[in-house]
Amino acid sequence: MLVVRSQKNENSKPTTINRQQATKMEVLKIATAGSVDDGKSTLIGRLLYDTKSLTTDKLEAIEKTSKQKGYDYLDFSLATDGLVAEREQGITIDVAHIYFSTATKSYIIADTPGHVEYTRNMVTGASTSQAAIILIDARKGVIEQTNRHFFINNLLRIKEVVVAINKMDLVDFSEERYNEIKADFEQLIEKRDYQGQKITFIPVSALKGDNVVNKSANTSWYKGETLLEHLEGLDLAAVSNIGTPRFPVQYVVRPKTENFHDFRGFAGKVYGGELSVGDEVVALPSQTKSKIKEIYFYDKKYETASRRSSVTITLEDEINVSRGDMLVKVDDLPSIEKQFTATISWMDSQDLTLGSKYIVQHGVNKVLAKVDNIHHKINPDYSGIDTDTKVLGMNDIAQVTFKLNKPIFYDAFKDHRTNGSFILIDTQSNSTVGAGFIQ
Amino acid sequence: MKDTSHINPLENEAIYIFREVTAQFEKPVLLFSGGKDSITLVRLAQKAFWPAKIPFPLMHIDTGHNFPETIEFRDRLVEELGLELIVRNVQDSIDAGKVKEESGKYSSRNSLQTTTLLDAIEEFKFDACIGGARRDEEKARAKERIFSVRDDFGQWDERNQRPELFDMLNGQIELGQNVRVFPISNWTELDVWSYIEKEEMEIPSIYFAHKRKVFLRDGLIWSHSDYVFQEDDEEVLERMVRFRTVGDMSCTAAVFSEAADIESVVQEIRDSTISERGARIDDKRSEAAMEKRKQQGYF
């Protein structure tokens, strides 16, 4: 079982591990990025089709609709474009999640739209992904939007990026064209912030199926893996970001029943690293110290809670801990500050202005925040910064300092993907209007 | 320890979502249909709050056209776990003249549930309704959020959804709005079945192969029942079938199957070439059937 090493205890049977599942199944989340007509939906549809993930009834629906539209090929984008307006206009409006699995992994693909709200949707899709696919139309090559697609994936510190050079069938599967695009893209790489990102180039034709799942006979000059082969080979432990253990308390479990009269458990998810029974911890913001007494996952006790497990922890001492507080190891404190500077992605049609107030949701903690300074905006083509800016509009990415009404307990995003990120909520509309990555 | 198990990341995510709903909302309710997905939700909720009891009631919007096996199962589960169950009936909405019973060959009470559901939300002032919908079920559901905001009329504005980033769930709403919450959004049908197997959970008997009186129409296997309209020339057959998805008798088609235990059901799902909702008559109405119903407040 993922959560945990089982501890012998009298309350319950020892945990059984489903071996077959444990060795076989991993979940890889992938974000996609590309401009309108680069063929993202078609690529995903092709992945589903060639991995035989499309069921007969779904395939029949695609065949029927393709025929109605007068196509002489199967329009795989129909497999993912879920809303009526999308099918009518042939574009993807909203992030859709697509699921398929192979013998070794389960995949969740975030299909993110490439038009008006593209930055917002891409940041959203990438925020939960460990890998990304950037599509380039082989006829158009690296365009202005490609800069942004790459930049966002780099900003979000996605470890594995695949650059799929698509529509190779329309450039006669030309090696020269492929190399030209690759060279152009490599110029972008030089400008990146996050050097740890691995980039793989693959020539594909999503429509015709070249190098997506099956090796293409049309690109004999290409010696690398197909897209699926590459994804299958990724080591999940290596692509996930690991930091130090952080335990934001979500909920205090107080059963007040006869058997558990004095039980006070702190329910939450462990981020970044492991926590074990006996660990000396400090509760933030009170800075009170204690030791971990028990770790429960459901009704079983465990010695250790591993990363991303949703456990309930009890402490040796009766200390005051409530939702929004955080347990951390004593020798491993995060920053505890009433202000921070972050790179933010603005997602609302209403502008962000200097001096305005928003709610910062940092994990399960919420504080009121004021925009103290907008340092600079990053140009959409990644060409530089604009330091003379007082407002941010939809899709803008900028460096901003916030002042908070009470301290939060954070790490820099580069050290901790979870504890270094936050969302911004509008105090009037309650909408999520932005996302940020703390410096 | 490596994250190598498949089910567990999903289980941990669902437990996290359950705790967020309970912490962020005043009156959550779990919408319980007696189907495998809502039974899975109950198990996950138990895990999220143990050793405390599940801190919210279950609610069943009863069309009156359920499989009797589902209702028996529902009542037993609620009793065994000591849960609170609220039942609201579509029949009452019909009697009050709020909705009109469909007529004809394809009539079903499935879409009538929406009115009864919205009335119940208002009656109890529920601010969060937890449901077992999954993104892999259907194209429109693939776009659904984990916390999905509905307006006063229960409507889903699919073009203006809140972005959901990282695993941070924004549950801030205005008075009158409510949120639909989907803890198993990222599970596939196979994930649910594997979980039922691993957890040794009990589920209604109709999910396993049994002999049933059925008739064939449009390539689907319909239950022979008082609740289902049947033409004179539609011959009643007795066949070994089971159900992959359980809604109303009038909107749920069976599949031919010999899978009589959970192991063979999981194997059957693994090998299947038809999607789960391929057996949902309500989805076959049109390409955009689900999206339309969702906009009107359907789950």
Could you provide a short overview of the structure?
Chain A is an alpha+beta fold.
Key features?
heterodimer; A: 439 residues; alpha+beta; Rossmann fold; Elongation Factor Tu (Ef-tu), domain 3; 6-stranded antiparallel β-barrel; 9 helices; disordered N terminus; B: 299 residues; alpha/beta; 2 domains; 4-stranded antiparallel beta sheet; globular
H/E element string of chain B?
Answer: HEHEHEHHEEEHEEEEHH
Q: Which protein chains make the most extensive interface, counting residues with beta carbons within 8 Å of the other chain's beta carbons?
A: A-B, 88 and 63 residues
- Rg of Cα set of chain B: 19 Å
Assembly type: heterodimer
Mean pLDDT of chain B comes to 87
Low-pLDDT stretches of chain B are: 1-7
CATH class of the largest domain in chain B: Alpha Beta
Compute the separation of the termini of chain B in Å. Answer: 38 Å
Q: What fold name goes in the CATH topology slot of the largest domain in chain A?
A: Rossmann fold
Secondary structure class of chain B reads alpha/beta
Work out the helicity level of chain A: 10-25%
Structural class of chain A: alpha+beta
Overall mean pLDDT score of chain A? 87
* Total number of helices of chain B: 8
Strands of chain B, count = 10
Describe the structure.
The complex is a heterodimer of chains A (439) and B (299). In chain A, strands 8-9-14-12-11-15 form a six-stranded antiparallel β-barrel. Chain A has a six-stranded mixed sheet with strand order 3-4-2-5-6-7, with helices on both faces. Residues 1-24 of chain A have low confidence and may be disordered. Chain A has nine helices and 24 strands. Chain A has helices at 19-24, 40-50, 56-68, 84-89, 118-127, 144-155, 175-189, 227-233, 236-239, and strands spanning 4-6, 27-33, 96-101, 106-111, 131-137, 160-166, 198-203, 246-253, 265-269, 275-276, 280-284, 288-297, 300-305, 310-315, 326-329, 335-346, 352-353, 357-362, 365-378, 385-386, 391-392, 397-410, 421-426, 432-438. Chain A is of the alpha+beta class and 439 residues long. Chain A folds into three domains: 21-239, P-loop containing nucleotide triphosphate hydrolases (Rossmann fold), CATH 3.40.50; 242-329, Translation factors (Elongation Factor Tu (Ef-tu), domain 3), CATH 2.40.30.10; 335-438, Elongation Factor Tu (Ef-tu), domain 3 (Beta Barrel). Chain B has a six-stranded mixed sheet with strand order 3-2-1-4-6-5, with helices on both faces. A four-stranded antiparallel sheet of chain B has the order 8-7-9-10, with no helix packed on it. Chain B is globular. In chain B, helix 1 crosses helix 2 (36-49) and helix 6 (189-198) packs antiparallel against helix 7. Chain B has helices at residues 7-24, 36-49, 68-81, 90-95, 113-124, 189-198, 262-271, 289-295; strands at residues 28-31, 58-62, 85-89, 128-130, 147-150, 178-181, 210-217, 220-223, 237-242, 255-256. Chain B has 299 residues and is of the alpha/beta class. Chains A and B meet through helix 1, helix 3, helix 4, strand 3 and helix 5 of A and helix 1, helix 2 and helix 6 of B.
